[in-house]
Structure formats: structure tokens, C-alpha cells
Design a protein that fits this description.
Growth Hormone, Chain: A; 0% strand; 480 residues; globular; mainly alpha
Length: 480
């Protein structure tokens, strides 16, 4: 029986690796096509920022709700619904001919963000029945991240080649739509359902308050990033401050409201546990560098060396640089899956966070040569790759029965908020142009140094917070 159960779990992980490969494809496929999409829609380059902002907003709003519904009604059911919605939006993108239709479709495609948390919950649920849910989930999470990053590389490499071969943008965009549609059938036919906890209720008002708070904070941060790009003037800063402060006030209201609920949208008491809150805080801090630092990295790599800094790389060389970073994420995820079998999960998390901090700290003295940037990025990438897989698995392990989906999904939400925060702050820092430079468009070295310092501080702070996690956390329960 045990061998059969292990086989079922391994088969489930195999199906989910396919799902994550497709998730990676749709995340990496469109980036090389943005210039052609801009021409196709008749918009400006700066308008592309609205696509990312809309998708981040929607994913931050819907991921907690869908994860909670998965805990209540079955994780496979909600995963299948999310995949169908993503497939529909991806087909819509292929036929969208105006800015607004493309923007709506792009936002709706963000339902793919809930795939990984629901997969983690399904794997943990099956492993828990065999009293090895935590160890199985840790190893599986690393493999899923490998699939995700491999898919991103495949998507980025395939998009340009397919467009060059077809010379038609619509035909080129059929490819991810076909891939996501195939994944709908993979989930429907290959994934078993979890066993939901009976007697659960949906805290509708709790989710409404949470969504309102997330909308205010992420919307304010997204608007902050747009101020310089859209030349909105100093008056726009008051709207940013008002939005973020209002969002924080709504979150305070949300916490007080949830503490009075019998079945809350998010169990604040669980979040207070020493094995949970450092993980969620780490997700936020890692989101700063994981989601916010790639843009500054690309612009720094393309900055002309004549300014006394930068690497002067062309578009192809910059793509190769990002490719090295993605490969380091894969290696980090693999190392996490391997080392978590023998080493303490808590120690692995701390070391991974330290690697992120060390990698970005090395940028401060070493950033003028390509080999230095590659080395720094690889060190940070190893840590980020391990943490991307570790965080949802650790959150699921720390959650009580019936709350694994929402716990793992919250790491995604906090990571998204961290990325939104860093994108906004980094945009302002780089646009400020500390000191005069010889170019009207290049950001100053001081701006880049600030970005790297913030990313390094985030990694070191995450490592420090993870020391508060109990030493026995994230371990399998002893056999009954």
C-alpha cells in the first residue's frame, strides 16, 4: 500500500510539473513580444506598465479568495476553474485588438498565480495522509519551481523564434493559449481531488475588507511608479500617500474584524504563530528583489560604459544575462529539493535568505565587470530559487488542517505586495538621478546602489526573522 501511495504522489507531482512549465511559458512568452504588441495595439511603450499593474492588482485580490474556496470545496475544483479562466483570457489576448480589451484580458490571465498555492495544498494533503506531508511538499515545491523557471526560459526563447517564422502576432499568441488549454485537460483528467474540511463557511465581508485594503495599497504603489513615467506632477504624490495610508487603516480594521470571526477569511491567530509570521514576512522581503530588481538590472546592464558604470550590453546580451539568473533560480530550487531531505528546513531557509543578501551586497563594491555581475546574480539567484519553493511549502506545513491553501497563497500575496512596493520605490529612486550624469536617460550609479542595498537588506532581514522560527518547525509529524 505504501509503495502505491508513493507512486500516486509522484504521479501527482509529475502532472503539476507540467502545469508549472506552462505557467512559466505564459510568464516568459510575452516579454520579447512587447515591442510588437505596442505597435499592434497602437500604444506607447510606457502603456505596457499598465498591463503589469492590472495583473498584479487582480492577482493580489483573487488569490486569497480562490485559495480559501479550495480549502472549503476542494483544491482540484478551484485549480480547474482557475485554469479555465486563464485559458479563456489567453485566447482573448490572441484576438485583442485594442488597448482596453488587451488590458482586461491580460489582467484576467493573472488567475494563473493561484495555481502553485493550490498545487502545494493538494500535495500536502496527500502526503499528510501518509504522515510525510511536510517532507513530500518540500521536495515537490523545489521541483515545481524548476518547472516554472524552465517554462519561463522556454517561453522567452520560443516567442521570438515563432514570431520570426510566422510574421503574424496573432498566430504567435495562439501558442500559449493552446498550452494553457491542454493544461485544463491535464488537471481535469490527471489530478485527484483533496478532501475539504466539513462545516466551513466563507467570510465574505472579511474578504471584501481584505480586497479593499489590498486594492488601496497596491493601487497606490502602482500609481507611485507611474508618476514619473507619465509626468503627473508633484500633486499626484498626495494621492499615493492617501491611498497607502487608507490601505493600512483598512488592514487594521481587517485584523480586528477577523479576530471576532468563528471561521475567518484569514486566521490572524495562525499568522501570529512563530512558525508562520516569519515565513510571510520573508515572502514580502524576497518579493522586493525577486519581482522588483530585474528591471533595474536590465537597465544597468544596458547603460553605456562611458558613464563610468554599467555594462554596455545590447538586447541579446541582456537577455543572456537574465537567462543566467533564471538558471541560478532553477539550481537553487533543485538544491532546496535535495538538501531539505537531510538538513533542517529552518536552516535551509536561513541560508537561502543569507545568499540573497550576500548576492546583492556584493553589487555594492563589485559591479563594473560582467563576471562580477554574473557572480553576484548567481549567488542571489540560488537563494531566491530555494525560497520560492520553500515559502509556500513552509506556510502549508505551519497551517492547521483545512487552511493549507490559504496559508500557501498568502506567501504569494505578500510576495506580490513586496514586489509592487519595490517596483514603485526603485522607479522613483532611479528616476531621481542622484548626481549629474552624462546621459539624459540613464539613471545614476547612486540610484542603482540604493536598489542593491535595499535588496541586500531585505535578504539579511529575512534571515534574521527566520531565526524566530522554532527549531522543530516544518517537520513531519511522528507516526501515530
Amino acid at each position: 500500500m505504501r509503495a502505491s501511495a508513493v507512486g500516486v504522489t509522484a504521479g501527482l507531482i509529475g502532472w503539476f510539473i507540467l502545469v508549472e512549465i506552462v505557467s512559466g511559458i505564459i510568464q516568459g512568452y510575452y516579454v520579447p513580444l512587447f515591442s510588437d504588441i505596442v505597435v499592434h495595439l497602437g500604444i506607447h511603450d510606457s502603456d505596457v506598465n499598465w498591463f503589469e499593474a492590472a495583473q498584479l492588482l487582480l492577482s493580489a485580490l483573487v488569490v486569497p479568495v480562490l485559495a480559501k474556496l479550495g480549502d472549503m470545496y476542494g483544491h482540484k475544483r478551484i485549480l480547474l476553474i482557475a485554469a479555465i479562466l486563464t485559458a479563456g483570457a489567453t485566447w482573448w489576448l490572441a484576438f485583442a485588438a485594442t488597448f482596453w480589451t488587451f488590458l482586461i484580458a491580460w489582467a484576467l490571465q493573472g488567475f494563473y498565480v493561484v495555481w502553485l498555492p493550490l498545487e502545494i495544498a493538494l500535495i500536502f494533503e496527500r502526503g499528510r495522509r501518509q504522515q510525510r506531508g511536510v517532507s513530500t511538499t518540500r521536495r515537490a515545491a523545489g521541483l515545481l519551481v524548476v518547472g516554472l523557471q524552465a517554462g519561463a526560459i522556454i517561453g522567452a526563447l520560443a516567442a521570438g523564434r515563432i514570431f520570426a517564422a510566422t510574421a503574424d502576432l496573432t498566430t504567435t499568441m495562439f501558442v500559449p493559449a493552446i498550452a494553457v488549454t491542454a493544461i485544463v485537460f491535464v488537471i481535469w483528467l490527471g489530478v485527484p481531488e483533496s478532501t475539504p474540511e466539513p462545516g466551513r463557511t466563507l467570510d465574505t465581508w472579511g474578504f471584501v475588507i481584505l480586497a479593499w485594503g489590498l486594492l488601496l495599497i497596491t493601487g497606490g504603489l502602482a500609481w507611485m511608479r507611474m508618476i514619473g513615467e507619465l509626468d503627473l506632477g508633484a500633486g499626484a504624490w498626495w494621492w499615493v500617500v492617501a491611498s497607502v495610508v487608507a490601505g493600512i487603516a483598512v488592514f487594521v480594521w481587517f485584523v480586528r474584524y477577523e479576530l471576532r470571526q468563528k471561521d475567518p477569511a484569514i486566521d490572524i491567530r495562525v499568522l501570529r504563530r512563530p512558525e508562520m509570521w516569519p515565513v510571510q514576512a520573508t515572502a514580502f522581503l524576497v518579493g522586493i528583489s525577486l519581482l522588483g530588481a530585474q528591471g533595474p538590472l536590465s537597465t544597468y546592464a544596458g547603460t553605456d560604459r562611458s558613464l563610468g558604470y554599467g555594462l554596455g550590453l545590447d538586447a541579446t546580451e541582456r537577455s543572456n544575462l537574465i537567462g543566467v539568473y533564471l538558471v541560478s533560480l532553477i539550481v537553487g530550487a533543485v538544491l532546496f529539493a535535495v538538501t531539505s531531505r537531510r538538513a533542517s528546513p529552518r536552516i535551509v531557509l536561513i541560508v537561502a535568505a543569507l545568499l540573497v543578501g550576500i548576492g546583492y551586497a556584493l553589487f555594492l563594491p563589485f559591479h563594473l565587470e560582467l563576471w562580477q555581475v554574473l557572480l553576484n546574480l548567481s549567488i542571489a539567484g540560488l537563494g531566491c530559487g530555494a525560497l520560492v519553493g520553500a515559502m509556500p511549502a513552509a506556510a502549508a506545513a505551519a497551517a492547521p488542517t483545512g487552511q493549507t491553501g490559504i496559508a500557501s497563497a498568502l506567501t504569494n500575496t505578500t510576495k506580490t505586495i513586496g514586489g509592487t512596493f519595490s517596483s514603485a520605490v526603485f522607479g522613483v529612486v532611479l528616476a531621481a538621478g542622484v548626481g549629474a550624469v552624462a546621459s539624459e536617460t540613464a539613471a545614476s550609479l547612486g540610484g542603482y546602489m540604493t536598489v542593491w542595498a535595499i535588496c541586500a537588506a531585505g535578504g539579511f532581514l529575512a534571515a534574521a526573522l527566520l531565526f524566530f522560527v522554532p527549531k522543530v518547525a516544518f517537520a513531519d509529524a511522528p507516526p501515530a
